[in-house]
Design brief:
The protein is of the alpha/beta class.
């Protein structure tokens, strides 16, 4: 059955919000993010709930953390148990500096060889697009308008290098209108990005659609592609389009895709929500192109900026070899960097920290010694590196793992993999908290030594519940009560129970903030000591992700830890929260792809 988008599947999430470089600068107040831009030029309220998964609780985002100073209602035994947990999950300054040394050491090893946990993957993007992207990054260093770039040849099993001269380097003054399409899970997001020039000003229209239940399974995948095209058509009708104008569109699908070219992506696997046997092996970009052409839309998909979960890719790789695959956090980190680099030329690093965690940064090509042949001699030639820092210390020899971390890892779908990510990403924080609380229940110190069927089930304590608990400043912790009694089905909790739960949430989230700040400090040290360095105007670190943007007090804790670890470098570092980074980054990639087609023959 062919369905057109209708209002009940549509969620408007942003309407013509204009961003300037100053919009993205985060002040000393940890909660003055772009979410709170004053005087929006529209009448629609800007709700961050459209940028996270629909929460089961109606919580107010960006509330400050209400730190619980004392466990006033708890017994001495309960206080002692919580103090012991706090000691287990704490990281001293000395331990943090030691961890920085370990991360930097593994990063250097990852640049030298492939058999390390932190892969340090060059973000090879096919052909001239890579040249254009690298040219933008070279501009950050004030270099001439050319770039030496590498990419993975889809038609061979070896790393290849090609060299391009590119003129017309992006300066932040480009103008044009571009589209971005993202399909993630059962949600579709379409955005129109207008580059206004004027040192990086742009405006964005964005709408979010939901794929109806009727279309998540079938025997003709083209039907769902047609629905996606209808969403693009509906979007263009709502925001308006120009006659005789063809929009370039950057596309991102949350599928396991073998990306053999800038405009080619073979579907290897679909998310678990979908059941379309005929989709496997098809070129999703060609399907989209055919659907757009059939619909008669003035749109062309110029770039696929794609990725999916590494766990799924690993399974696929047991039977299929891929020429170029990245996980979703890989491309999201790169998109975050590009989205901010358009506005701030000092951007040389980007961090994603939400459901997953990753970092992309600008590295000298000459430092990537695992490519022994064709290594450029000039130290000014650079490329974006995806660190894959979530994999740090999969050997479990240097991370400050607790018993709870080890259990969470053992019971996960990918044991002994992405240990660092499991210690600090939103996907696992709720589960870690649940395991700690169950330990206290079994010790007879919480909930009267009784639990509930819901609470005993894995991953039922969503990380968003922790948001609510940490922000609760009521005397009796009524919002914590709501989480425990309504969501977790634990009856008749005491104030002591609620204080312990709130404190444990604080302990777990604090460690997450400290660990991500430690990882950021490690990358910054590598940049300063062995990499592109920090110029007189300093360095901008682009950040994105629900934890940094929404979790009460999280950003502040990251900043405090960063200041402690980087010392005198702190005044030269600007942390910026990037809005809609995936869509903005995808649209900028579309712009660069279009420009590369104009400037480089043979793409």
């Amino acid at each position: 059955m062919y369905l057109n988008p209708v209002a009940r599947y549509l969620k408007p999430s942003l309407d013509a919000v204009i961003f300037s470089p100053s919009t993205f600068l985060v002040s000393s107040h940890p909660l003055l993010y772009p979410f709170l831009v004053p005087h929006l030029p529209n009448t629609m309220s800007f709700s961050v709930k459209h940028f996270i998964k629909p929460p089961p609780l109606d919580f107010e985002p960006n509330r400050p953390a209400a730190v619980l100073r004392e466990l006033t209602a708890c017994s001495d035994a309960q206080k002692a148990a919580v103090a012991d947990l706090q000691a287990q999950f704490s990281l001293s300054k000395e331990a943090g500096e030691t961890l920085v040394d370990s991360i930097v050491s593994e990063m250097k090893q990852g640049l030298e060889r492939d058999d390390v946990s932190m892969r340090m993957l060059p973000t090879f993007v096919t052909g001239a697009l890579c040249a254009s992207l690298c040219a933008l990054l070279l501009r950050i260093r004030g270099c001439p308008g050319h770039a030496l770039v590498g990419y993975h040849n889809a038609n061979s099993n070896k790393q290849c290098r090609e060299f391009f001269n590119v003129s017309g380097i992006p300066t932040g003054n480009e103008q044009g209108t571009y589209l971005a399409l993202e399909v993630a899970g059962t949600e579709i997001r379409v955005a129109q990005l207008k580059l206004m020039g004027n040192h990086g000003q742009f405006s964005i229209h964005e709408f979010q659609y939901r794929i109806p239940d009727e279309l998540i399974a079938g025997d003709n995948f083209s039907v769902m592609i047609d629905y996606i095209t209808d969403c693009v058509d509906d979007f263009l009708r709502r925001v308006g389009s120009q006659d005789l104008f063809v929009y370039s569109m950057g596309v991102s699908f949350g599928f396991a895709i073998q990306q053999a070219g800038l405009r080619q992506g073979i579907i290897l696997d679909l998310p678990q929500e979908y059941s379309y046997p005929d989709a496997i092996g098809k070129d999703v970009i060609q399907l989209l192109h055919d659907s757009i052409e059939k619909k008669g839309l003035a749109v062309k998909a110029t770039a696929l900026a794609n990725g999916t979960d590494m766990e799924r890719i690993q399974k696929v790789l047991t039977t299929l070899s891929s020429s170029s695959q990245f996980n979703s956090h890989t491309m999201y980190a790169v998109c975050t960097l590009l989205a901010q680099a358009y506005q701030a030329p000092t951007t040389t690093m980007a961090v994603l920290h939400g459901m997953g965690t990753n970092c992309a940064y600008v590295e000298r090509l000459s430092n990537i010694t695992k490519f022994k042949s064709d290594t450029p001699s000039s130290s000014d030639e650079t490329i974006i590196i995806n660190t894959e820092w979530g994999n740090f210390d999969n050997e479990r020899s240097r991370l400050p793992l607790t018993w709870f971390d080890r259990r969470c890892d053992r019971e996960s779908v990918n044991p002994h993999y992405q240990l660092f990510e499991k210690m600090m990403s939103a996907k696992y924080l709720g589960e870690l908290t649940r395991l700690v609380l169950l330990y206290l229940v079994d010790s007879g110190l919480l909930f009267g030594a009784d639990s509930s069927h819901t609470f005993n089930m894995s991953y039922t304590l969503d990380t968003t519940y922790m948001y609510v608990c940490e922000a609760d400043d009521s005397p009796d912790l009524e919002q914590v009560r709501l989480v425990l009694e309504t969501m977790m089905k634990i009856q008749d909790t005491t104030l002591a129970d609620r204080q312990i739960v709130k404190k444990v949430c604080e302990i777990i989230s604090m460690r997450s903030a400290v660990l991500v700040a430690t990882a950021m400090a490690s990358v910054l040290r590598l940049i300063v000591t062995d990499g592109v360095g920090i110029g007189p105007e300093g360095i901008t670190v682009a950040t994105s992700g629900d934890l940094l943007e929404l979790y009460p007090g999280f950003y502040d804790r990251v900043c405090d830890t960063m200041k402690m670890l980087v010392g005198d470098l702190a005044p030269k570092i600007t942390l910026v929260v990037v809005k809609s980074c995936r869509l903005v980054g995808s649209a900028i990639i579309a712009m660069m792809a279009e420009k590369a087609c104009e400037d480089v023959v043979g793409l």
